[in-house]
Design goal:
single chain; mainly alpha; 4 helices
Length: about 90
């Protein structure tokens, strides 16, 4: 399900200014569409992660930036590993 900015702010109970800052910091990266930014449920989950890091764990902005970068790397590695495994399975079938 895709949301526009207004819907996303309401869904996440987020201040517009906060979202703007997080967009500038590239903590939230919505899909770019002709109608404007389109936010997904994964973006809402990321908002919750940022809130947990800042509010529950007391992580500062620099720490949030590092953690989000590491999480993104981890997900990228998982996708790459899955692609390698799929390729190996396909090779075994031949």
């Amino acid at each position: 399900m895709s949301m526009d900015k207004r819907q996303f702010v309401a869904r996440c109970n987020l201040e517009v200014h906060t979202l703007e800052v997080w967009l500038e910091q590239h903590w939230i990266v919505p899909e770019d569409t002709a109608a404007g930014p389109a936010f997904a449920e994964i973006d809402a989950a990321r908002v919750q992660l940022i809130r947990d890091l800042r509010e529950e764990m007391g992580v500062n902005d620099a720490g949030v930036d590092v953690i989000l970068h590491l999480v993104d790397q981890l997900h990228g590695l998982r996708r790459a590993l899955a692609a390698v495994q799929d390729s190996e399975r396909e090779s075994e079938r031949r």
